Each structure stands twice: as C-alpha cells, then as structure tokens.
Amino acid sequence: MPLYKSQTLKIYNSLSGEKETFTPIHEGNVGMYVCGPTVYSNVHLGNVRTFMSFDVIFRYFLHLDYKVRYVRNITDVGHIVDDVDEGEDKIAKKARLEQLEPMEVVQRYTVDFHDILNAFNFLPPSIEPTATGHIIEQIEIIKTIIDKGIGYEANGSVYFDVVKFNETNHYGRLSGRNIEDMLANTRDLDGQSDKRNPQDFALWKKAEPQHIMRWPSPWSDGFPGWHLECTAMSTKYLGNHFDIHGGGMDLKFPHHECEIAQNEACTGQTPVNYWMHANMLTLNGKKMAKSTGNNILPREILTGENSILSKAFSASVARFFMLQAHYRSILDFSDDAIVAAEKGYKRLMEAIDAAKDLVASPNSTIDIAGWKQSCYDAMNDDFNTPIMIAQLFEGVRFINLLKEGKEILTAEDLKTFTATINGFVFDVLGLEDEKVSDSTNDKLEGTVNMLIEMRKQARDNKNFAMSDQIRDQLIALGIQLKDGKEGTTFSI
After folding, report:
1. 100/94 Cα distance (integer angstroms)
2. What CA–CA distance (Å, rounded) separates 177 from 147?
C-alpha cells in the first residue's frame, strides 16, 4: 500500500487562507508548478530558500509514494525591469551593459542557477521549460483571451481588460484585493498609455526599434507579457486544472493574480487547487540588497569569500539552517545563526553514524512507532520542517540512551528507527553527510599552511613561477587561497 494512504497531509492554501487536507485531482499523482528564476544575474540566497522549500515539498510527496510531475520554468525572455509594463527588459539590459547577446546572458546565468542548486543537493524538476520555447503557446492564449472579449489590441500591443474580467470573476481574490479599491488608489491614465484602465496588464508588447528580444505575432513584432509565460507552460504540462502552484511571497500580486485571471478567462475554471507561497530571507535583520552591501551570494557561503560570515560553511549546513524555519515564516540569516546550525547539523550526523553500531535486544523500551508517526505528523502539518527536525533530535536522544544502555530496542524496532531517521534526514530534508574527522581536518590545515608558507618564501625570493604553481595546483585540488593584509587564508 502506498504510504500516502496512511497519512493525512494538510497544506496552507493562500487562496483560502487556511490549512486544507490535500486531495489530489488524480489519486496517487501530484501536478506541481513553481515559478523559476529570471536568468539575468546570479541566483541570490532568497531564491535558493524559496526553491529549497519546494524541493523539500517535492521530496516529501515522493517519500509518500506519490507520482509527481514537478514543473519549474526558466524565464529567459526577460520581463520588464520594474515588473510593470514600461521600462527595459532585464535580460536585454544586462546584455547591453555587458556587451553580450541576450542568449549569452541567459546561458551564463542558467548554468549558474543549476550549479548552485546542484551544490545544495536539489532534485531536478520533472520538466524545466523555457519561456522562449513556448512563444507559440503564449500567442494562442492571447488569441483566445481576445476572442472572449477580455483582451484588446492597441498600437501593436495587447492588454488584459481587468475591469471587463471582473464583471464575471473576482480579480484580486488571491491577494485579498478588490478592483474598486485598486482603481480608486491609482492615478488616472495621462493619455500617453494604450491601456483602457490602470490595472490592465500586458499580454503582448510591441517591441521598440532598440529592443533586441522580439518575435513575430499577429499584432506586431514584440514579446510576451511577464505573466503569460507561466500560464502557457503550467497548462501545457499539467493541464487547465492542476494541484499546486508555488512561488515566493512577492509573486502573489500581481504575478499569480494575473495568472489566475488569464487561466479563468481562457478556460472558465479555477486553474489551481492549492496556492503555496514561501516567505522571504533577511540578512542580519535587514532586507538583502546589493546597493547597501547587505548581501551575500550562495557561492560565497561555500567559499567563505565574504565580509559577513566568520568562515566558509558547507551546503548541507546552510540547507539545515534554512529548514529550521517554516517555509511561510521570515528567516534571518546571520553568522551566529549558521554557526549554531552547524553545531546542530554535526550533532545530528554524529548520532546517525553512531546508530550503525547499536545492538538489538529481546524487547523495546521506546515507543518507536509513536515517534515515527510524530515525524510524519510534523511534515503532514503544512511541511513543518522545524517541528520535524525537533523530532529528529528526539531520535538523537534515543541513540544516546541506547548507546548508554539506558534504553533497548528489538531488531525490528531498531530497523524501523534507523530507516525512519535516515529517510527524513537524507531523503526528505536532502541533507548530505559531509563530516570529516577532526584529525583529518587538522592534518589538511597543517599541510595547506605549510604550502602557504612555501609559497610566501618563493614570492619573497621572487620565484613567482613556483609561487603560481603552488597556487594553481591547490586550486586544481579544490583549495582556494585568498591573499589579504593579514596574510593568506584558504577555503575548500
């Protein structure tokens, strides 16, 4: 019997504002769409946290024996810089600044996105479609919306008529807005816009002569609106009605609101049963921003090359830190917090390693079945990873008591216990056992420091060839040197 039949999973639905029992449209199958990155820059830590939340959700569905089709797109068209209908395309702007072809920008940052997610042990989605690969589908959706009388063409651009749509539907239901308030709080159009109403959004934009990324359409050479791509790709691969749509909290309005409107205008039905939104990540209590310097890239956590953290941290430690907070809560990243997380992570891994040596007894003094269900209860409560981690540390306590002979387990209970703790740690949370013994660490550090001193002597003797050779060979081994005012340090 599949595991999901014995577990009742509840999901917080942003559409209703309540936790609801998860019932898939097709028994045993889950269709999940998550808004992916716009690939015009290095993926930032907040993105990683959002995608990590849905990676764990994906993993848990698989753990429950569901067959999952997980679709996460790549936005390679590049939407407008300020996410409205005016301004400069993000990818085109980056291409202009770096004097590259737009698709060079796309390729560079798509590779970076995949490299980072692989480093953090993400499972790949079932399908990873691109916006540029679905221009035809987007044009067909626009045609349908125009035919339904909810889209209109103006000077080569096409807009979604929000007021017309709202006559029979509720625009703003997901974000708790109503159209009357939105219209009352926006300025009148100044006569320079092609829109009928301030709240209307672009389905297709006519490209200005300098706009690089453009495609032919019945209305003009141009490019699709930001919101349209997700409607096209989610419905193509999951159908007009599917189980879960996820993304960051910042996408709830206008992006997801507009997606709902587009779907309902085309099909006459609500597209998604459960809307899920992950909350933001802050840094030292403040919003992360490159402009203020309060920012750190995921790669900089792994290398230690930053001015915020005291040292480098492994991907699993960073992952463990993020999963100690519920995906719907704000999480503050700081040096103290990740140092504490590293201690907890090491304690967990040491206990799991020690569990391999536990010996079975004729009977049990611990209720393993009850503990096992408490782990499931935590995840069944809207994927509550912090509560589940607390239960795992209850398991760590069991291991210590069993080692000391203060508690005992039968062979069957011991098998259940180790399978459960390993399943949740490695399969569901996606952690990896990255521990290296302290003695090995000491030997490595001593060896590298000896080579650093040899390199310094070579430089002092103006033997730069030897100095460069030591540096390059260490890099080839995955050890990077960093020269600073106070000497040379290294990171793995």
Report:
1. 8
2. 27
- Is 255 known to sit in a ligand binding site? yes
Is 342 annotated as belonging to a binding site?
no
**Size of the chain, expressed as the number of residues it contains:** 492
How far is Cα 400 from Cα 407, in angstroms, rounded to an integer?
A: 9
Structure tokens at 144: 């349908």
Which fold would CATH assign to domain 3-278? Rossmann fold (3.40.50)
On whether 290 is known to bind a ligand per the annotation, the reply is yes
Question: What is residue 192's predicted lDDT score, i.e. its pLDDT?
Answer: 56
Beta strands 157-160 and 242-248 are: unpaired
Give 224-261 pLDDT, tens digit per residue: 998 999 999 999 999 999 999 999 999 999 999 999 99
Q: Please give the model's pTM, rounded to 2 decimal places.
A: 0.87
User: Using CA atoms, how far apart are residues 96 and 143, in angstroms rounded to an integer?
Assistant: 32
Residues of the chain with CATH 1.10.730.10: 282-427
Return d(Cα 52, Cα 327) in angstroms, integer: 9
Mean per-residue pLDDT over the chain, rounded: 91
Give the C-alpha separation, 144 to 147, whole Å: 5
Q: Is 35 annotated as a binding residue?
A: yes
Rounded Cα distance between 75 and 78, Å, is: 6
Beta bridge partners of 121: none
230 annotated as belonging to a binding site for a ligand = yes
What is the distance between the alpha carbons of residues 425 and 280, in angstroms, rounded to a whole number? Answer: 24
CATH number, span 282-427: 1.10.730.10
Residues 160 and 145: beta-carbon distance below 8 Å: yes
